[in-house]
Amino acid sequence: MTLHDLYLLSPEIALAGVAMLVIVLDLFVSRKGVLPVVGMAGIAISVLFSASLWGDLQSQPSGQMSGVFGTLAVDRFGLFFKFLLAVAAALVLLMSVSYTERFRRFQGEFYGLMLLATSGMMLLASATELISIYVALELTALPMAALAAFLRDSRSAESGMKFLILSAISSAVLLYGMVFIYGYTGTTSLAEIAAVTGALLDAGYLDPLAAFGDSKALLFGIALVIAGFGFKISSVPFQFWAPDVYEGAPTPVTAFLSVASKAAGFAVILRVFYVSFPVEAMSQHWAAIFAILSVLSMTFGNLVAIRQDNIKRMLAYSTIAHAGYVMVGLAAVATRVSSGQADVGASGALFYLGGYVATNLTAFAVIVAVSNRIGSDRIDDYAGMSRRGPLLAATMAFAMISLTGIPPTIGFMSKVYLFGAAVNANLEWLAIAGMVNSVISAYYYLRVIKVMYLREPSDGSSVASDTATGIALTFTASATLLFGVYPAPLIDFARSAATALGV
Fold first, then answer.
1. DSSP string, 275-290
2. DSSP 303
3. What is the pTM of this model?
4. In this structure, is residue 270 part of a structural domain?
5. 55: which residues sit within 8 A by CB, 6+ positions away?
6. How many domains is the chain built from?
7. Torsions phi, psi of 376, nearest 5?
8. Is the dihedral of CA 304, 306, 308, 311 positive or negative?
9. Quick one: 482 exposed, middle or buried, by C-beta within 10 A (0-12, 13-18, 19+)?
């Protein structure tokens, strides 16, 4: 490994190094408030390295820098997710400052594991080879399993155990699918897989009119890979872990899982499928798979969320539905490969993920603040919150409006952009399904607002956020409003990242 390789890995190395530093510092410092400060400094260093890499790409004719024996690609697509993940990690760290008083003795381990998980997700966004993708996934999953069990009560332990076991099963399924793809193509490099499948199509060994070239091995391998990745993004029918894990895990961990883990999962799905199988004969078929999974995820998530009385569990089903919305972009980009407009769907998926991070973290920051004060996550216990904590209630209402997709929020703009991409890809039925599901989701999102504003409070004490959580709330709510009114900068950023996929 050369110095250039280390430079390409510098954002991930910085996070991992600071994670180790935080754990060691925890042994020697009595004032634990220094730990999140060091963690935030590590994230800032990682962002600076990412910005430096972005600047260096300007001098690259290909728009990409490769290293680590061809297993890593630094491009605008990967860097988009590095910035997004860094922002999400920083905001969750701020939300955790007061929450970690519940396990004061283990704050160093908590922050360290959070940074290690983030470094794994960043690596996942840039990996261009199947084995390195698998290693990055495990670097992400193992710290998250430990974090899910961090409260050390029965529910949290169950949460961590379920996540660990089901993550291991999904990783085994994913690895088995990768083995089939490797066995058929003879390579683990994403670019070389595309070259081999293209050559086989040109030579007539694969039928361009049949599903995946009429190759049973390739079909089985891709199906297993989709199943493995489906677990990571909690899409139907691989979503069964999400509600229990979200409910039992510490609330900041739930927030991190809901946005960062989902963003990293979609990053690797986009790279694997749009780099390895970009030709029209392949993309048309797996686009149909993602379109079907999109409708199933949207419908199941929204319908089951209606029945929930725990707000974390409700948002778990909500995130299943939002995975379906993002998959609209996956289906749209695949159907536009041959026309040269694939970046519309890809940028739509990236834009939606950016908006979802801002909106969902706004909601979870309020949940953290309220949970710290009342010790409950039941929706009914939010009764009268408009009087007990007017600012928190207004912010939560704004987040619910954005998740529904009502203007003037980023949630509205991202759905308009994403469903527009589906219409441009002649997937009007998928756009209609998305709009119908958005209407369904209004029932349970607006129910939270109804409880906060129309029910009498059971307790007259005031509820307010701590300073760190308030800073996170201000940032996320401002981003939700700003990009809802003026989305152009984020759309341009997403388009620039999408073009790096070469589709």
1. HHS-SHHHHHHHHHHH
2. H
3. 0.94
4. no
5. none
6. 1
7. -145, 150
8. positive
9. middle
Using one digit for the tens of pLDDT, what is the confidence trace for 377-433?
A: 899 989 989 899 899 999 999 999 999 999 999 999 999 999 988 888 888 999 999
Residue 200 lies in a domain: no
What does the alpha-carbon distance between residue 158 and residue 307 come to, in Å, rounded to a whole number?
22
Q: Which two tokens stand for residue 148?
A: 């899910």
Per-residue pLDDT reduced to its tens digit, 195-231: 888 888 777 777 666 666 567 888 888 889 999 999 8
Decide if 363 is inside a domain: yes
Residue 329 confidence (pLDDT)? 87
Give residue 386's identity as a one-letter amino acid code.
Answer: S
**H or E segment and range at residue 72:** strand 72-75
Owning domain of residue 367:
285-503
d(CA 43, CA 47) in angstroms, rounded, equals 6
142 domain residue, yes or no: no
Q: What b/e readout covers 179-204, taking b as 16+ CB neighbours within 10 angstroms?
A: ebbbebbebbbbbbbbebbbebbeee
Say if CB 137 and CB 171 are below 8 A apart: yes
Q: Is 66 helix (H, G, I), strand (E, B) or coil?
A: strand
Amino acid in the structure at residue 11: P
Q: Which two tokens stand for residue 300?
A: 């199941």
